[in-house]
């Protein structure tokens, strides 16, 4: 079956270092990908998205990389801060199907060590 | 405050109780959603409403009953729940069925 998953359930990074969170997907028809951040006691919050016609997209301190050949997605966070500690989810969909086909991964817990 | 407000934040209910979860958005969005978030499992879509009409229910048990009286409000009515229904229930809205989500902070439900 189709699945979206993360390579590691937990990741600890020293404050100030860069972090990379990975995500694998299996639906080759997926063409829209999103990263969410969920802090304790809050709902998921949109971070950045990317469409399949792009390999890389940058935001503020975050970069998403998409490798369609191996169906892999990554989120890079530069110069991590304590506020980056959270669970990060990737999600995928086929843009034509809308949100009801959005599939989420299980999440990676990122802990920033002071 | 994300623009999507859920109440209550926490709820403990017995298996014979009837309770309702409430979600409210004033973002002008046309689509609203209920998700279930269980430990170590991906977010599970339960219900989708677009322009107040239900478009997806994903085979959710009938002990969960959604209601969308208008485009700003969404309810999830609960009755005769099971302990395995304990989870974080998240409401989300989007401009349309294909737009980006805004999630609420969720209701942490415990069924005893």
Descriptive report:
The complex is a heterodimer of chains A (114) and B (112). With 114 residues, chain A is mainly beta. Chain A is built from no helices and eleven strands. Chain A has strands at 4-5, 10-14, 19-25, 32-38, 45-51, 56-58, 62-67, 72-77, 86-93, 103-104, 108-113. In chain A, the strands form two sheets. In chain A, strands 2, 4, 5, 9, 10 and 11 form a six-stranded mixed beta sheet that branches. In chain A, a hairpin with a 3-residue loop joins strand 6 (56-58) and strand 7 (62-67). The mean pLDDT of chain A is 90. Chain B is 0% helix and 56% strand. In chain B, the strands form two sheets. In chain B, strands 2, 4, 5, 6, 9, 10 and 11 form a seven-stranded mixed beta sheet that branches. Chain B has a four-stranded antiparallel beta sheet with strand order 1-3-8-7, with no helix packed on it. The termini of chain B are far apart. The interface between A and B is medium-sized, with 21 and 26 residues.
Distance between the termini of chain B: 30 Å
Residue share in helix of chain A: under 10%
From the alpha carbons, calculate the radius of gyration of chain B and give it in angstroms: 13 Å
Number of helices of chain A: 0
The helix content of chain B, as a percent range, equals: under 10%
Please tell me what the overall shape of chain A is: globular
Largest sheet of chain A: 6 strands, mixed
Number of strands of chain B: 11
């Amino acid at each position: 079956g189709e699945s979206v998953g993360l390579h590691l359930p937990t990741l600890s990074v020293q404050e100030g270092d860069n972090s990379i969170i990975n995500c694998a997907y299996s639906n080759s028809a997926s063409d829209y990908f999103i990263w969410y951040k969920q802090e304790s006691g809050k709902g998921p919050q949109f971070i950045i998205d990317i469409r399949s016609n792009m390999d890389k997209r940058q935001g503020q301190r975050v970069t998403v990389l998409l490798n369609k050949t191996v169906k892999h997605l990554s989120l890079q966070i530069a110069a991590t801060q304590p506020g980056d500690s959270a669970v990060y989810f990737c999600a995928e969909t086929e843009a034509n199907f809308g949100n009801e086909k959005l599939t989420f991964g299980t999440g990676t817990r990122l802990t920033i060590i002071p | 405050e994300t623009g999507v407000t859920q109440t209550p934040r926490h709820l403990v209910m017995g298996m014979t109780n009837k309770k309702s979860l409430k979600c409210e958005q004033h973002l002008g969005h046309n689509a609203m959603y209920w998700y279930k978030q269980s430990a170590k499992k991906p977010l599970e879509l339960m219900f989708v409403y677009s322009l107040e009409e239900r478009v997806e229910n994903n085979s959710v048990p009938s002990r969960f009953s959604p209601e969308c009286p208008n485009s700003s409000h969404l309810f999830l009515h609960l009755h005769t729940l099971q302990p395995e229904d304990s989870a974080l229930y998240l409401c989300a809205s989007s401009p349309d069925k294909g737009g980006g989500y805004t999630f609420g902070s969720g209701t942490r439900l415990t069924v005893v």
